[in-house]
Specification:
The complex is a heterodimer of chains A (328) and B (251). Helices cover 73% and strands 1% of the residues of chain A. Chain A has a two-stranded antiparallel sheet. Chain B has two domains: 163 residues, Rossmann fold, CATH 3.40.50; 77 residues, no CATH class. Classes of the chains: A mainly alpha (328), B alpha/beta (251).
Chain lengths: 328, 251
């Protein structure tokens, strides 16, 4: 929770190098990998927004569907009203946020496993609406022909400009999510997670804060869904099944959910790993699964805990003391 | 006007009568002891006052206003704050952050101010409040430590500090002396008096008779969910029914 140390010179330098590397990356990649890079950037927003929802201690299974809400909103608003991307993305977030706000009333009466099941059921209800209402949502084949946006004469069908655009949008969203987590609101969410009755006894309306986290998380994943459909040009109900939801969970857990950047590490490392074992073909899923099991066995606090672990193995006694404390 | 009025409060759990038509009043500025053998209904009474339960019948009035059945956070906003049995703290947060959560009511930042960083003034005010409360409770030196690292006495002091940060007018303390050694008990008694002297009325549920007799001017005794007796510590000490309730229960 504590965020000690501001932006020191070395940190700034590392940040600048990372940014330049990130901006240069698509130029060294083939078409297929440029696509992958864009989806990875979008998935970073999906996991970071999910983290906000989990801050109150409640894990939902509706996040993937909320991403779909954003995606369908964009597809419909482009196909029917030809709205520009400046309007469609906020609209995608707002639609997901509004549906989340409505779902708060039944869902937030539940906690833990009941909330998990309740959110899954609500999500499936929404997803199957897309399947069943063929006239509006196109059924199982979804909505197609969503034209790529053209902004200031730049065609976003081209992966490189669209990657930069995605990077800016996701960057802004991440900054906002970070600010929320490190504000008093974030502290209150943590407090509700650990001891809701104590927080309530000093005047915290726990229900409202749970709702806030759920609505905001849905808002940002709605934008992620919108970014996806703008690039892909189509959306189907199959993109947002429980299967994709499980991937979000895996990325968050393997990356580590105790720090803001844990889920980011999770989604980046696992995506690159999955891509790097592509040549193994039939045994690729087995390798991927095996890697997940090993990672959770040996790094239960996530990949994010590797530096602290290394420090405690090779560092001085004081470093290992710090580790012991932070493990508690 | 009494700060707290309990009027004919009954609380039933199925067929079990946890509180049976209990009435008493707490005067402004006093430390009222609420005692009784285990299972007498003291904690149930606390939960009813603080809004964690709502009474099956009867009314609870704070400063003349009915608070029965309101939500805990509403009641806290009105100025009635409880502490919890044992060490209910945000164990994985620092002492400073624990008390900062307690400042919620007085300095709440809204979402947009928090994102844009416009809540700095509010934030500074809250931090000053935290520093003040920590000094008041003698925890100033420990502000960066994790709550889970504190010794028992300091953990209990921190629990009270969290409550004080919300600026209550009536503090409900649930067994703050349980498990303490004599030295810690003495220190906690001093702190409790200091809280009272700062103008906060206190209702104290406690088994430690030394602390209760030393702190409270007036006692309310519950037994099997009913009001058994009321009086000064001296009167209660010699009350036949109270002696029977305690010794009868033990024998």
């Amino acid at each position: 929770m504590s965020s000690k140390g501001g932006f020191t010179m070395p940190k700034l330098a590392i940040g600048a190098v990372a940014l330049i590397a990130l901006l240069a990356t698509p130029h060294f990649l083939g078409f297929h990998h440029q696509d992958l890079l864009i989806f990875l950037t979008i998935n970073v927003l999906a996991v970071c927004s999910y983290r906000l929802v989990t801050l109150t201690g409640e894990w939902s299974l509706i996040h993937a569907v909320m991403m779909g809400v954003g995606a369908y909103t964009v597809a419909l608003s482009v196909n029917h009203f030809d709205l520009a991307i400046w309007f469609t993305l906020p609209l995608a977030g707002t639609a997901a946020g509004l549906i989340a706000a409505l779902l708060c009333f039944p869902l937030l009466r539940m906690t833990q496993f009941y909330f998990l099941i309740g959110s899954f059921a609500a999500g499936e209800a929404i997803r199957l609406t897309w399947v069943e209402f063929v006239g509006v949502f196109g059924g199982t084949s979804g909505l197609r022909g969503v034209e790529a946006p053209v902004v200031w004469g730049i065609d976003f069908l081209d992966p490189i400009p669209y990657f930069y655009f995605t990077l800016v949008v996701v960057g802004i969203c991440l900054l906002i999510l970070y600010r929320i987590e490190h504000s008093r609101i974030g502290l209150t969410l943590h407090a509700i997670h650990w001891k809701a009755p104590l927080a309530e006894s000093v005047g915290v309306n726990a229900w409202r804060y749970r709702a806030l986290a759920f609505i905001l998380g849905s808002f940002f994943v709605g934008i992620a869904g919108g970014l996806k459909v703008h690039y892909l040009g189509s959306v189907t109900p199959n993109q947002f099944t429980i299967g994709f939801m499980v991937f979000i969970l895996i990325w968050v857990i393997v990356g580590g959910y105790n720090k803001f950047y844990g889920p980011v590490i999770g989604v980046v490392v696992l995506t690159i790993f999955d891509e790097s074992i592509r040549s193994f073909e039939v045994i690729r899923p087995a390798i991927y699964g095996g890697m997940l099991i090993l990672s959770i066995l040996f790094l239960p606090m996530g990949l994010e805990s590797i530096p602290a672990k290394l420090k405690s193995w090779f560092g001085s006694d004081s470093a290992s003391d710090e580790q012991a404390l932070s493990d508690q | 006007m009494p700060v707290l009025e309990i009027n004919n409060v009954t609380k039933k759990f199925g067929g079990l009568m946890a509180l049976d038509d209990v009435s008493f009043q707490v005067e402004e500025g006093e430390i009222r002891g609420l005692i009784g053998p285990n299972g007498a209904g003291k904690s149930t009474m606390f939960k009813n006052i603080a809004g964690f339960y709502s009474p099956s019948s009867g009314d609870i009035r704070y400063q003349g206003q009915s608070i029965a059945g309101r939500k805990p956070h509403n009641i806290a906003e009105m100025g009635v704050v409880r502490t919890f049995q044992e060490t209910t703290l945000f164990q994985e947060l620092s002492v400073f952050e624990n008390v900062l959560v307690g400042c919620h009511i007085r300095s709440r930042s809204n979402l947009f101010a928090a994102i844009l960083g416009l809540d700095r003034g509010l934030q500074r005010e809250a931090e000053e409040k935290v520093a003040e409360v920590l000094d008041f409770m003698g925890l100033g030196e420990r502000r960066e430590q994790l709550a889970s690292e504190l010794p028992l006495g300091s953990q209990r002091a921190l629990a009270i500090a969290i409550a004080l940060a919300s600026e209550p007018k009536l503090l409900l303390m649930d067994e703050p002396f349980a498990g303490m050694n004599p030295e810690e008990t003495n220190h906690m008694m001093e702190l409790t008096r200091k809280v009272q002297e700062s103008g906060i009325s206190i209702v104290l549920v406690e088994h430690d008779m030394k602390a209760v007799m030393g702190l409270c001017g007036y006692l309310t005794v519950l037994n099997f969910g009913q009001l058994l007796a009321e009086g000064t510590p001296e009167e209660i000490r010699h009350n036949e029914r109270v002696i029977e309730a305690y010794l009868g229960g033990a024998g």
